[in-house]
Fold:
Amino acid sequence: MPKASRINEVKGVQSADEFLAAIDGMDTLERVPLYYGLKDHVVDFDDLYRSQERVGLMNSRTSELVGVASKRWEPVTHKDAFTQVVNSTLDLVGAETFYGKVQNNGNNASIDILFGTADVVDKLAYGIHVTNNYHVGTTLNISSLFVRAACTNGMLWKDVSAAIALNHLNKVWNMDIGSGVSKVVGKLASTGDMIGTRISDAIDDVVSYAENVDLINRILVQAGISEERGLARLQKSKWGWTGGADMSRYDLYNLVTAYASHLTRSTRQFDDVQRGATHILKTPFEDLLNAAAIPVVATVVA
Structure:
């Protein structure tokens, strides 16, 4: 089986047509027959048996065998799923302000569609975040997305409470995807109000930086930022906090999201740091500092 060539393409797009063009070139998946023979028995291909109940799932670009599934399992390709998402979103919100990002990471892919702005303490752009994965047992996920309008590369919030997951087992029809988009878009207003409250609380939650610098650095490490690239490096940037005597929890949050946007290259690392940032936005400074003060005890397994 050939080794899959890695890919991580990220494209910024400014219209529905650009979304559709970027989606068109994504990795595709197809079902392929599986053959088997007797263990430890050398056979010619003609002597192999074709499985009647299982199929292989192959990435057409890389010829990688992604997995083995029941013959009932129907892959939903990135192109099919995201094309329907784009069209469903257009039907709901129109195309006047329609922009975002398309990321093709081989068997994993995502799109961020932004189409509105709201002033809830900080100015936010909002839309939907959609992911698709070719591995067996995964789902197509649609969730709400809010980002700081001041820096749209820095993700603010992927809200799973306003999300829908569609299973690949039986073909995800266009109606199901359209319904999922409609459900998530319908909750954007209430989600935005909730995020505004989170931001207000984080702005008002202030601690002395000088008295807590070591613990703040530990919080950064827990959020996925390595010690050597921690607060000292972020202070020199243009990402919000400039090293004053006090630091708000929103200052710290914005530093972490800026780090994720500009300093990380791995999709997985980006997601890990963003989860750490969301935890900071949701958690009072007192709790964050107390957790950072607890020493890590190594466990020795006999």
Summary: Residues 9-26+75-199 form one domain. DSSP finds nine helices and eleven strands in the chain.
